[in-house]
């Protein structure tokens, strides 16, 4: 089984990837999609000039676009999503191999993220395996996701470039949309409670307040992506039903509703001309 580790990075983040690479091992390769916003960031560090590493550079921003670039170049059996601030062990690769080799029906796996010694658990993970579907799921982090490349590419599934860091409005959530598209297309998506990567407990999303504008905009956009125009009455319903909780967080009901509708409107307006996804 050949595993491609798809690493998305931008500008000086390329320098950090030298700390991620494991010793060369059969069946594991790295595809690094490096977005460049200034020519001074284009040189590739000598440590990345290895036979098991591909560095593909492109101009601009947008992590979903970056992940799509890596996906286009992937040629293995299974791909694992990664960023430039993670750590792997050889045991992580064995976990992935065992999961996919042991279940031919498995198309997409959502694993667990470990944290450095002394830090709390990355999230409150369920102890048992389960299949994710339209009603049964959990908050997905991109670093947890591995998938059979043939299954994903055959169905034309890509990352929606309207979502994620560096997009024009909705600054995260490209992984949630990706999993939604996998489930909608009929792929088998399973949560497997085993660690495949290490990352610090803190993340950009966790640092946000509960009803931060970025979260509300994402919620509106994500609802529109899944349910179309029904995201509009859903936003109104939630604004009314959450009014007391919003008040406790010093969030006005009207402000919350406007943010939800902003995200929904962006997706609904662009649905006929959206980037490949």
Structural account:
- The longest helix has 18 residues, at about 255-270.
- This protein starts with a strand and ends in a 7-residue tail after the last helix.
- Strands 3-2-1-4-7-5-8-6 form an eight-stranded mixed sheet, with helices on both faces.
- With about 280 residues, it is an alpha/beta fold.
- It is about 35% helix and about 20% strand.
- The model is unreliable at about 270-275 (pLDDT under 50).
- The protein has two domains: about 5-200, Alpha-Beta Complex (Spore Coat Polysaccharide Biosynthesis Protein SpsA, Chain A); about 210-275, no CATH class.
- Helix 7 (about 215-225) crosses helix 8 and helix 7 crosses helix 10.
- The protein contains ten helices and eight strands.
- Strand 1, helix 1 (about 15) and strand 2 form a beta-alpha-beta unit.
- It has helices at about 15, 65-75, 90-100, 150-155, 175-185, 205, 215-225, 230-240, 245-250, 255-270, and strands at about 5-10, 30-35, 55-60, 80, 110-115, 130, 145-150, 190-200.
Helix share, percent: 25-40%
What sequence of helices (H) and strands (E) makes up the elements? EHEEHEHEEEHHEHHHHH
Named CATH architecture of the largest domain: Alpha-Beta Complex
> How many β-strand stretches?
8
CATH class of the largest domain: Alpha Beta
Major sheet attributes: 8 strands, mixed
CATH topology of the largest domain, what is it called? Spore Coat Polysaccharide Biosynthesis Protein SpsA, Chain A
Report low-confidence residues grouped into runs of 5 or more. Answer: 272-277
Give the count of helical stretches: 10
Strand order of the largest sheet: 3-2-1-4-7-5-8-6
- The portion of residues forming beta strands comes to 15-25%
Cα-based radius of gyration, to the nearest Å: 19 Å
